[in-house]
UniProtKB/TrEMBL annotation:
Alphabetic keyword roster: Repeat, RNA-binding
Pfam families: RRM_1 (PF00076)
Domain RRM intervals: 214-287, 305-396, 448-521, 539-619
Species this chain originates from: Naumovozyma castellii (Yeast)
Name this protein carries in UniProt: RRM domain-containing protein
GN (gene name): NCAS0H01040
GO molecular function (one): mRNA 3'-UTR binding
Length: 629
């Protein structure tokens, strides 16, 4: 072990991790092993979440609830706030004024959202303890000290004087000036642990931060990159315009609002955006304002890049070709208005969606198409939703998890608000970036693989999945001969959160404290896998409508654990199989999400599964850990 308590796992081919051998309290944090639970509780223990302010403060210390974890590797803990648990000696008036001025400066720094260079940047608490009253603070009328009544001097009536403090055999009497100084100190400490936003916005991330521009710069792009291929990676908001400059290997994406641009910018950095095998450079374009004409159309008509065309009946043939409308025909008819990104026709519904590369082109199309082409005179022409602004299930889940909102609750309706989602995910991404870089350096940004070491000798992979919480898993790889495991999450944000919580509180399996670190950088999530996850894919395969009574009469039986393991083992390693006979279903959990996708595709052709309902189940590792009380 080196002097800075950092151990390097260089002998492991799967890991280039650095582990924090931190001396923690003797009582470990036990994560409840609940493989069947779908209950989602606020993720972070206590009342604070991880640092989220401004840009990724890579060189800044991590801070939680007034504790500073410097570098997050050496395990040193410092307290940036003044210690007021013991009464200071009576100061001079000059020292008292200096003390008040210093505390007032801290209050100003905290209220502005930033600390000075010698301080620790603040934490925005995102949720309240379920059993705690709202964290409102007003300066107390008496000294805000936790005083043992056995050490208090009572008056003749048996009442305790708040300004009398018994320190052993010495009685201190605070002067009014001293009381005011201590009150100021208490106020500063309270401000450090209470929201820096109104209580009505405690869990509301709106207006969290502003971007320097609506336009994001992308460099080092493939020379043959198309607009469609580029926008396939955008899921942060409504796009106003896209420009690709092949000769300079760069592109610019302009969003309608700055929050969408900031979310895409931070997400691309955190996940290390990779297109066509090339790592994309991310920056900011020149700041501009939205054209007043476009703004008016957006406000009045909900204008987007997407043009909706309805009433495209199969029998309604084109007057020129005498055939039903085709994608090629739509492109030919509409390309005069501007560059077209995608065309999607749904014949059974008689509708089509045409995405232009800019909102301006779409506005021209909607207002002029009927008058310019007789075929569209009786068609319904309107604006559709920008495909880059769709809120995926993963994004909604991440935002709810970050804000401590349980899925299925009525207030989830608010998550349909794009700006609300964007800012919640932005805070989460910034927090994850700060955690990942503080622990593993700038090169660790976007890493999705967490290293677990010092595992019990008889550990099973199921036991590991029982304690991993906070995000969907891509894979779990157990090296039992080395007593280590590598857990790769789908989302780097989830990996950073799991690492932070496990490092701070410890991770225990079979009453044994495990080592937690970063594994070899996972790289970005493959696009095909990201698309599958957005459509509901997970490690868990659900099989429903099982007739267990009929299966019991078979010889051999199919729906037993041994039979199913033998059957599904051909698609990949099976982690766990759960049966729910009362609901006529079972769940097969794989150690790799790719194996689950393959199994779901292949098993449907098996005669024994033809009449059964087969789909993806919920990965229990995606549940939020029960809040530590």
């Amino acid at each position: 072990m080196s002097s800075d308590h950092t151990q390097y796992f260089t002998d492991d081919p799967y890991s280039q991790t650095q582990y924090s051998d931190i001396d923690r309290s003797e009582t470990p944090l036990y994560l409840e092993e609940d493989p069947y639970s779908s209950t989602e509780q606020p993720f972070w223990p206590g009342r604070a979440s991880y640092p989220v302010h401004s840009s990724y403060m890579i060189n800044q210390p991590l801070s939680l609830n007034g504790l500073s974890i410097n570098g997050a590797r050496n395990g040193s803990i410092s307290y940036p706030y003044p210690d007021i648990s013991q009464p200071p000696s009576a100061p001079s008036s000059q020292r008292n004024r200096h003390y008040q001025n210093r505390m007032q400066q801290q209050v100003q720094d905290r209220s502005s959202g930033f600390m000075n260079k010698d301080s620790h940047f603040p934490i925005i608490p995102q949720e309240l303890d379920e059993y705690s009253p709202p964290m409102m603070y007003s300066p107390p009328a008496t000294i805000p000290l936790e005083i043992n009544q056995n050490n208090m001097k009572s008056n003749a009536n048996g009442n305790v004087n708040a300004s009398d403090y018994n320190n052993g055999n010495v009685i201190y009497k605070f002067t009014p000036a001293m009381e005011q100084a201590i009150n100021n100190t208490a106020a500063a400490v309270a401000n450090a642990s209470t929201p820096m936003i109104p209580m009505t916005q405690l869990n509301d991330p709106l207006d969290f931060i502003s971007a320097p521009s609506r336009t994001v710069y992308l460099g080092n792009i493939p020379s043959n990159l198309t607009v469609k291929e580029l926008l396939d990676h955008v899921r942060s908001g409504v796009v106003e315009d896209v420009k690709i400059i092949p000769e300079k290997l760069c592109a610019f994406i302009s969003f309608v609002d700055e929050s969408s641009a900031l979310l895409f910018h931070s997400d691309a950095i955190l996940k290390r955006l990779n297109i066509g095998g090339k790592d994309i450079k991310i920056g900011w374009g020149k700041p501009t304002t939205v054209d007043p004409m476009i703004s008016a159309r957006i406000i009045n008509d909900d204008a987007t890049r997407n043009v909706f065309i309805g009433h495209l009946n199969k029998t309604d043939n084109d007057s020129c070709t005498k055939e039903p409308i085709t994608e090629a025909k739509l492109r030919e008819d509409l390309e005069d208005f501007g560059e077209i990104e995608t065309v999607k026709i749904i014949p059974e519904k008689g509708i089509a969606f045409v995405h232009f590369s800019s909102i301006t082109s779409a506005i021209k199309c909607v207002h002029n198409l009927r008058s310019m082409n007789p075929y569209y005179e009786n068609k319904k022409i309107a604006y559709g939703k920008d495909r880059c602004a769709f809120i995926t299930k993963t994004q909604q889940h991440n935002a709810a998890q970050f804000l401590g909102v349980q899925s299925g609750m009525e207030n989830m309706a608010k998550f349909s608000d794009r700006k609300f989602i964007s800012n919640a995910l932005l805070q989460q991404s910034a927090a994850a970036a700060a955690i990942a870089t503080a622990a593993g350096g700038p090169n660790n940004l976007g890493n999705r693989t967490v290293y677990l070491g010092n595992l019990p000798k008889d550990i099973k992979i199921e036991e590991i999945c029982n304690v991993v919480r906070g995000g969907l898993l891509q894979s779990v790889k157990l090296l039992s001969d080395r007593y280590v495991c590598f857990v790769t999450f789908i989302d780097p944000t989830a990996a950073a959160q799991f690492y932070a919580m496990s490092s701070l509180h410890g991770l225990t399996i079979q009453k044994k404290r495990c080592k937690v670190g970063w594994g070899k950088h996972s790289g970005p999530l493959p696009n095909a896998l990201a698309l599958a996850v957005s459509n509901g894919a997970s490690r868990n395969v659900y099989i429903g409508n099982i007739n267990f009574e009929k299966d019991a009469m078979r010889d051999p039986r199919i729906f037993t654990e041994d039979s199913l393991r033998k059957l599904f083992r051909q698609y990949g390693e099976v982690e766990q199989i759960n049966f729910l006979p009362e609901k006529n279903c079972c769940f097969i959990n794989f150690t790799n999400i790719s194996n689950a996708i393959l199994a779901l595709d292949k098993i449907k052709s098996n005669p024994h599964f033809e009449d059964l309902k087969i789909n993806f189940g919920k990965d229990r590792c995606g549940n939020v850990p029960h809040q530590v009380r």
